[in-house]
Amino acid sequence: MSHTRWYDPILEHPVARGVAGSLAAAGAAGLLMTATPAEAQDLVTPYGAGGVLIGYQWGAEDNAGNGLLWGVEGRGGVMLADQFGGPAMAANAVGRFSFVNLDPQLHFGGQIGGGFGMVFGVFDVTLGHRWGPHGGFSMPLGFELQVHAASTFVRLDPLLWQGAVGGGVSWMPREMLVGFAVPGRPLHAEEGHAALPAVTRLDEERPPDDVDPELAAVLATEWAHRAQGEWASVPAFLQLADQLARVAAPASLVRRAREAAADEARHAIATARASMVYGGAPLTLGAVSPHTRRPAEGLDALRRLAAESWVDGCLGEGKAAAAVARESQLAPHAAQRAMQLTIARDEARHAELAWDVLAWTVAAGGDDVRHAVDALRDASPSERTSGLDGGLDLRSHGLLSEPEHAGLASALRERAASRLAAVLG
Ligand SMILES: [Fe+2]
Ligand SMILES: [Fe+2]
Predict the structure, then answer these.
(1) Which residue range forms the structural domain that includes residue 337?
(2) Ligand 2 centre from 47 Cα, in Å?
(3) Are residues 219 and 147 in the same domain?
(4) Coil, helix or strand at residue 118
(5) pLDDT, tens digit, for every residue of 171-205?
(6) How far, in Å, is the centroid of ligand 2 from the Cα of 283?
(7) Exposed, middle or buried: residue 270 (CB in 10 Å: 0-12, 13-18, 19+)?
């Protein structure tokens, strides 16, 4: 019997064929860009992940090919973002080996999409083959919603006239997470953290002669990211000084917060210079403002000051001080060692300021403040993973690996926890 299948118009339609082709090309482009140290390297973060999936596949007329869908998949590609925390685009290649009941199927293709933070929506097209009843060449087209490590998908295959729904979990290899940036004190907005200031290189990148160009590009990017964080810390400390003054905190705390803002401005310049050493051209840092949220009043202000002092200062800057001090021992040049030692000492002083602000808010606000901080005992300061290439010799250029950062963070937390217990009384 001859009949027009519902998907024929899709296959015959040039626009639809174009869309399918473009999605497949996205996978190839993702792989290609991963291997290329792009000029706009600071916009591009390579990533890779592997995972498992489970779902249900249906559509065969006699039900012989219906059943439980299960298998494994791997992804590799790049993420493009103008700033951390801003919207991002992702393009990657994907490979999937799965079964429907016990009949295998193998697919390769691409995904392209976009998202915010850890939430991504991606279109997915793959080509492959399915063995067993109602098998043959297949081309599932789908959409996948990824939230952190979990995903859910729906796919329709116009060649085999089958559909599938399901979900999965994926893991990113730890090596992909090498290179935690040392954060400055984060700048808060009404909700969460304010976007980081823009950073722009003023001229074409020219790596130094004595450093491998790929490594130089990564180092230039890493230092530029640090400059962004440090620069955002300037308004963060001005915001802190203003908030302290509004709740009539001791003048010495207000003064020390203003001095910390000046320290952070020096850190921003020093780290931007380090980026210039590897990138060969200076950076500009975009405008920042301390007016990213309204100051709080009364007890609310004390609770907020206490909570942020604990998380951003005692833990965040305390950890940054330890990490930068360690990095200063690895730094290849005397100038870099001196710069990192200065930053380490400053960060340690900022952490001490946070402990003093915390102690004052507890004394001024009593149990309300105690409970607010106690609830955040296990909170973690924000850290950014840069997705630096674990295969590069970053350590000999003064950057710690992710496990080293994690080790320093847990040692610091242990010390901070007992000190917090003493402060809370
Ligand atoms: Fe800093
Ligand atoms: Fe700091």
Answers:
(1) 177-424
(2) 29
(3) no
(4) coil
(5) 865 333 333 445 578 899 998 888 888 888 888 88
(6) 21
(7) buried
